[in-house]
Amino acid sequence: MRILKKILIVLILLFSIVLITAYFMPKKYEVTREIVINKPVDSVFNYVKYLKNQNEFSAWGKADPKIKLTYTGTDGAVGAIAAWESKVKEVGVGEQEIVKLTEKKRIDYNLRFKQPFEDTAAAFISTENIDSNQTKVKWNINGVIPYPMNIMLPMMNMDQMLGKDLQKGLENLKTKLEQ
């Protein structure tokens, strides 16, 4: 009985240390990738602002050719929503909504993930004119991992995990628009 009591005390102490550590760990993450596309800013922005076009370049859209997509609202305008359903775990089920649009500059989204886990995040795609035939495109995803799950954030390496998909999407976008 004394051994069980000691084991229980050790487990409670370890659990307490994890909770205390998580309290002081970062909860926010932010991942950004960028690329230069040899096209004018107007043509790049007018392509990326449409949710229906994202499936043509997004690494997640290309991961499942059988993905089920539904759209509501006016595509390319605030309030437009693209919802997806996929049996591919990396894609899952969720939706994104355009929440702010600054013409020729930036599109802001809210992302709502439903499966394989429930979560929300924010994202944006911005376009910046470099010269008359070059545009810098940035793609950003940011969010918060709630306490105490944030203890996993350093082990998850969100920059590497999401960054490779953002970069692949931007490379696909560049190929698509420059052909």
From TrEMBL:
InterPro entries: Polyketide_cyclase/dehydratase, START-like_dom_sf
SUPFAM superfamilies named among the record's database cross-references: Bet v1-like
Keyword Transmembrane helix found: yes
Organism for this UniProt entry: Flavobacterium hercynium
Transmembrane listed as a keyword: yes
Protein name: Polyketide cyclase
Keywords linked to the UniProt accession: Membrane, Transmembrane, Transmembrane helix
Taxonomic superkingdom: Bacteria
Transmembrane parts of this sequence: 7-25
